[in-house]
Design goal:
single chain; about 160 residues; alpha/beta; Helix Hairpins; Chitinase A, domain 3; 2 domains; 5-stranded mixed sheet; two-stranded parallel ribbon; 3 helices; about 25% strand
């Protein structure tokens, strides 16, 4: 299955991948220094560096896997018919609090609700994708039911 992601999200992942692959050299140097401290069976610095290396390699593998299945979705090919789709920003009105919020529908790794980035897999996104401005949304949450109205769909 493909992992949808925006171009900005993919660029961020690529920069992170580049950073952690370069970190390999730094960790290898730490391991060599720690080996110089003597018996590695009782060497805390060596154990720490090896653990750090294993964690970094696992992160590299996860990113490689995710990126190899990534599908960059841009607004260029979107049918701009007013519907909520992946990659657009959506202005919502919380019908109970009268608070307006704007969220951009993004990939899983880009999700950051505090900065208005809503994963396409989130319950709210699943409810609003495919809807048009003016649609009323009913979202069940652990705290009860929330009601929203889609005010606008913004294509970047």
């Amino acid at each position: 299955m493909k992992n949808p992601i925006t171009q900005n999200g993919y660029n961020d992942l690529f920069r992170e991948f580049d950073r952690i692959t370069r970190l390999r050299l730094e960790i290898a140097a730490e391991i060599e220094v720690a080996r110089g401290y003597g018996d590695i069976s009782e060497n805390a610095e060596y154990e720490f560096a090896k653990t750090r290396q294993a964690q970094n390699e696992a992160k590299i593998a996860r990113l490689q896997e995710f990126m190899s299945n990534a599908e960059v979705i841009t607004s260029i090919g979107l049918v701009k018919d007013g519907r909520v789709v992946f990659g657009v920003s959506v202005k919502l009105l919380n019908s109970e609090t009268e608070q307006e919020v704007t969220y951009k529908i993004v990939g899983e790794t880009e999700s950051d609700i505090k900065n208005g980035m809503l994963s396409y897999r989130s319950p709210l996104a699943r409810e609003i994708i495919g809807q048009y401005p003016g649609a009323d949304i009913e979202l069940e949450t652990p705290r009860g039911v929330n009601y929203y109205e889609i005010l606008d769909v913004l294509y970047d």
